Amino acid sequence: MNIQKLIQGHKKFKDNIYKNYKQDFEALIENGQKPKVLFIGCSDSRVSPDLIFHSRPGDMFTTRNIGNFVPPYKVNDDFHGTTAVIEYAVNILKVEDIIVCGHSHCGACKALFDDNIKQDKNLSHVAKWLELGYEAKEIAKNICQGDKSKLAKTVEQESIKIQLKNILTYPMINRLVKTNKINIHGWYYDIPNGTISNYDKNKNIFKEI
Ligand SMILES: [Zn+2]
């Protein structure tokens, strides 16, 4: 889709679809947004949250980044985009559920195995960001033991588990999880089948929801 298609699509939205949402938007302006869910997904254009959850405006607070990574909690003077979203969602919006959603055919997980990215000066921030997937890559390599046929899915799913671990480094979230005031979920979206599987920590398996 190029930009002209987007503009045409917006016209269709404005002239036809918006009326179905008008009341929702008015209520959301009047009362403010009160999403109960924080969705952390991949920037991949095929992962389209409102489409795959059939959700409406106001339902989810959303952040997407390359690889649906969650940086471990760190206090310093840098700009922490994903961390700021998490902090706001938890402390101000008081979301009750956080979903870390990985997906099949993830370019970020594939790029973990591409050493050329590290050499490319134009991709220095991408290379740094991908470090958040290194632990998952090593675990997946160990599990697969050279079986390339299952490497992609294994690293994608292992990464979700690592991000769930990282999110618990946020002191506030750790406290809220311990007191059952917030739930964290690791979901895996399979693009060819349109299915979502939830990570069951006790059984260490992903099971379709
Ligand atoms: Zn991805």
What features would you describe in this structure?
The chain is built from 9 helices and 6 strands. By secondary structure, it is an alpha/beta fold. It has 2 domains: 1-30, no CATH class; 33-208, Carbonic anhydrase (Beta-carbonic Anhydrase, Chain A, 3-Layer(aba) Sandwich), CATH 3.40.1050. Strands 2-1-3-4-5-6 form a 6-stranded mixed sheet, with helices on one face. Helix 2 (49-52) links the parallel strand 1 and strand 2. Helix 7 crosses helix 8 (151-167). The longest helix has 29 residues, at 3-31. The protein is globular. The two termini are 31 Å apart. Bound molecules: zinc ion. Zinc ion (ZN) binds at residues 42, 44, 67, 103, 106-108. The site of zinc ion (ZN) has 7 residues, from helix 4.
Number of DSSP E strands: 6
The main β sheet shows up as:
6 strands, mixed
Gyration radius (Cα, Å) is: 18 Å
CATH second-level architecture of the largest domain:
3-Layer(aba) Sandwich
Q: Can you lay out the helices and strands and say which pair or pack?
A:
Elements: H1 3-31, E1 37-42, H2 49-52, E2 60-65, H3 81-91, E3 97-103, H4 107-111, H5 116-119, H6 124-130, H7 134-144, H8 151-167, H9 171-178, E4 183-190, E5 195-200, E6 205-208
Parallel strand pairs: 1-2, 1-3, 3-4
Antiparallel strand pairs: 4-5, 5-6
Helix pairs in contact: 7-8
The structure holds zinc ion.
Zinc ion (ZN) is lined by residues 42, 44, 67, 103, 106-108.
